[in-house]
Amino acid sequence: MNITTLDYTITNAKLKMRTSPAALSIQQPDASVDLRQPKADMSIQTTPGQLRIDQSQAFADAGRKDVFQLTRETAAKARQKALEGTGRRAMEGRELADIHKVDNAIQQQAKRKSARNFETGLTWIPSYGSVKIDYQVGDVVINVQTHQVENNTRANKPVINYQPGDVSFQLIQSPFVRFQAVNKTI
Q: How far is CA 122 from CA 57, 126, 130, 153, in A?
């Protein structure tokens, strides 16, 4: 028995695809930095401290006196001794003039001359408080005038280059369907 059948052939379409990738480049230029810091104005005024040390009393205690002070003290002591000697001689002369009134006047005078008083004791040289110290504190005045920072920094925009990608299609083979009637014997 002969049967007619339908035979078909399908040919698919063939495409050619071509792509070019997108390109992106970004460059960031450095910022333009312009900073200035003016120097501060500073002034310092000082008043120096003053130290005064007076050692004249300590030197005098140790016997190291200046010539004028030594001369004054020696003259005062000599004057005092001269007055004491004059007074003593005047008193002794009156005693001897009045020998008839006082018993043993010569013996009393001899006894007074033979008896001496000596002062003994410890003396600290120089004596406490003989060095006088006077200190006047100094002063420091500091004036500072600051200045603001001058900031003229400018940010630069980025440089962006973009090249879009591309996709292209090309039909190499068209699709088609072919039908054919074929007689087959079964």
A: 18, 12, 17, 84
159-163/23-27 β-pairing? antiparallel
Question: Burial code of 12-39, b = ≥16 C-beta within 10 A, e = fewer?
Answer: eeeeeeeeeeeeeeeeeeeeeeeeeeee
> What tens digit of pLDDT does each residue of 72-119 get?
989 999 999 999 999 989 988 888 888 877 778 888 888 888 877 777
Query: Which helix (H) or strand (E) segment is 18 a member of?
Result: strand 14-20
| Single pTM value for the model | 0.37
91 by DSSP, 3-state: which?
Answer: helix
Q: Which residues of 164-175 are buried (b: 16+ CB within 10 A; e: fewer)?
A: eeeeeeeeeeee
- Distance, in Å, from the CA atom of 112 to the CA atom of 95, rounded to the nearest integer, reads 13
Contacts 24+ apart (CB under 8 A), 72-79: none
> What distance in Å separates the CA atoms of residue 157 and residue 110, rounded to the nearest whole number?
125
Tokens of 122: 């410890």
SS3 70: helix
Q: How far apart are CA 105 and CA 99, in angstroms?
A: 6
Which residues is 44 bridged to in the sheet? 142
